[in-house]
């Protein structure tokens, strides 16, 4: 017979307290996300308030007067609480949501034009000329290379080049590969059915610079009536002066650094970014109100609510303090390892792992991962994600440690210097790395790094159809 009974057992178990959960949440926010999070918290907690720096009547407490709040301290609401301020990054105005933004096409103009040209019945030579023209378009969609240069490159007549360019001009977007604005607009007019005797065509061909002068100018010049001129100008306004506009536009990404690495008096230093348009601090009115027991009357729930909100506010300030101190320690550890990169360049980027930094700052690897996630650092060499400084490494024959990023840079350098007619195989690159730089890595590793760099294989790099399709492969 089964016997049922109760018994007590001691079992060690990790329990995440609400305060610890808040610390972990704040820790992984970048400065812009943190900024938005704090605005939400201020709206829901009466003990938190904002003080905007650009208001002249505000009096600010110097940073030297700040008293550190330790995570282990318990909040005593009966005692005078410490005012504490934190500075945060600049807020970006919130835009009204637009579903059309989520439907934006990512297709590039060159790929779209190549797809269209491949549907045309052209000879291999004519396609090569078309690929070459497409590969030399600028960001606006205009051809920025002379027709004579193209003819010389392929050893063909100017008429042959012009024939191919005219085919491209009438692809979508119409007017692409034009030599100037006038030709681009005339191509679009011709495409939509206006011949050389039409008013819009005449205005663009002969009076493009005078178009801004308006209806009266052309009415007196040609004797056209006002409606004809107005209609023609309206048609011209609808034309696209930059055919590639919609294909080179990208979604704006706002990035604000969480750390700054800078050199002062020949010494590298790290700074946690705290400056911003407002200060978050505890609200004096509610602190004083909470200490006056008579104000609560016979409603203890009001006092209980306020005590909880006060605790939440203090927990948030402690979490922010923890975030800044840990971010500073991690930044300092990264700077210690990567000073040579900041001074000499990518080839001096050392291998660095989460474990290395965790041991340096006495935190767990998962905590380091949270700290560096989606955070950026401003350096004299530009803006970098903190993850950039972490990579596996290898040793050269001299015993020097090299990061995977440094080896990728060597691979790119070797390929950029190769003979285009005789590109190097991955095995050959592996051999050069070993003989010239003392870096012993396998062919498959070279292949992996080359693909990560988005550099085509040996077959694709040969001077052929694919080479002309893509133009320059590597930056």
From TrEMBL:
Domain RNA polymerase sigma factor 54 core-binding positions: 99-286
Domain RNA polymerase sigma factor 54 DNA-binding: 304-462
GO molecular-function terms, A-Z: DNA binding; DNA-binding transcription activator activity; nucleotidyltransferase activity; sigma factor activity
GO biological process: DNA-templated transcription initiation
Coiled coil (UniProt feature): 303-330
Keywords: Coiled coil, DNA-binding, DNA-directed RNA polymerase, Nucleotidyltransferase, Sigma factor, Transcription, Transcription regulation, Transferase
A GO CC annotation given for this chain: DNA-directed RNA polymerase complex
Family to which the UniProt record says this protein belongs: Belongs to the sigma-54 factor family.
Protein name, as recorded: RNA polymerase, sigma 54 subunit, RpoN
Protein's organism: Thermodesulfobacterium geofontis (strain OPF15)
